[in-house]
Design brief:
Layout: H1 2-8, H2 14-21, E1 45-49, E2 64-66, E3 75-76
Antiparallel strand pairs: 1-2, 1-3
């Protein structure tokens, strides 16, 4: 009041008062201005949640006052979206005949094109909005489908010649599905060893031979990535089931000496011969070290007493030695002296 009176008497100019209240001159008093030193920054704005990101904020949500730009954070200055969870429903959408207020103007299906959308022309109990063919009383949602007649009776969509819905039409109707009642049988299926033509190739159990050993999985190849493994392979001692008989290194301990062929038994039919046996002088490799009677050639002439050396203390006496006369010694171990 005092300022007003003083202004009336000319002591204070009204323009000075206005300038004091709005220092940046943007028309917004400093009490409401987000930045009264910047004429590009005005009053706070009300932002509304834009959940579906269609540029329109929810008409039902409360706004948030802020000096900041909240648009990048899912807010909008517009609050005319009547369904903020569906991007197809906005004030600028085209009204559809679907019993929904698509353009948020408060009216449903107000377009002249929608006058007949809720009629049931064929009398099957389903209106044109839901009936895939409102001219056919036998076609409506969940009706019993009659396959291969070219009519979508149950309104499920898809081909009427693909009964198992595997994406391939029946081979009886110009398709290439050899069994249109089994979704697991079609040209894209993997061939299994089950006496069924799973991939509709015309051949049963024709799984490929990936390793080139002339045996596929359906021929009993237990490892079709390794050509050395198949039913015709010799089962070596390598911790692998080479012949695919479900037994790894199946050689047994035939002589019961605790060693099998895969455990380096050089004679698995003689229990006196094994890697753990004691070498004896008998002309055999008892301990499987590839040397017969090793340790029994005392004179080192290559012959042992069990290998016809008649004197294993004299290297000059053995079956290959030359007989010497006049020494009364059987040098060549033939049983005669000096002959």
């Amino acid at each position: 009041m005092m300022i007003f009176l003083l202004a009336c008497y000319g002591f204070i100019d009204l323009n000075d008062v206005q300038s004091a209240n709005d220092r940046d001159g943007d028309g917004v008093p400093y009490t409401s201005d987000c930045d009264d030193e910047n004429d590009s920054s005005g009053a706070t704005r009300v932002w509304y949640p834009d959940v579906d990101g269609d540029g329109y904020g929810s008409s039902e949500a409360s706004g948030t006052e802020s000096c900041d730009d909240l648009a990048p954070s899912g807010f909008s200055l517009d609050n005319t979206d009547c369904n903020d969870t569906d991007t197809a429903i906005t004030p600028d959408a085209v009204e559809e005949c679907d019993d929904i207020d698509n353009d948020c103007n408060g009216a449903v299906d107000e377009s002249s094109e929608c006058e007949d959308h809720n009629t049931d022309a064929d009398g099957d109990g389903f209106t044109a909005d839901f009936d895939c063919d409102d001219t056919n009383p036998d076609a409506y949602p969940n009706a019993e489908e009659v396959w291969y007649n070219g009519v979508d009776e149950d309104c499920a969509g898809g081909s009427d010649y693909d009964q198992d819905s595997d994406g391939f039409d029946s081979s009886d109707y110009s398709g290439n599905d050899c069994n249109d009642t089994d979704i697991a049988i079609n040209p894209d299926a993997e061939e299994l060893c089950d006496e069924i033509d799973n991939d509709c190739s015309g051949t049963t159990d024709d799984a490929t031979d990936d390793d080139g050993d002339f045996y596929g999985e359906c021929d009993g190849d237990c490892d079709d990535a390794d050509a050395t493994v198949n039913p015709n392979e010799y089962d070596g001692c390598d911790a692998i089931d080479n012949d695919c008989d479900d037994v790894i290194d199946q050689y047994d301990d035939n002589d019961g000496d605790g060693y099998s062929r895969c455990q380096d038994d050089c004679n698995d039919y003689d229990d006196s011969v094994s890697p753990g046996a004691e070498e004896i002088c008998d002309g055999h490799d008892n301990n499987c070290d590839d040397i017969s009677d090793d340790g029994f050639d005392a004179d080192g002439d290559g012959y042992t007493t069990c290998n016809r050396d008649c004197d294993d203390t004299d290297a000059g006496v053995n079956p290959d030695a030359t007989e010497r006369t006049g020494d009364a010694i059987d040098s060549n171990c033939n049983g005669d002296t000096d002959t």
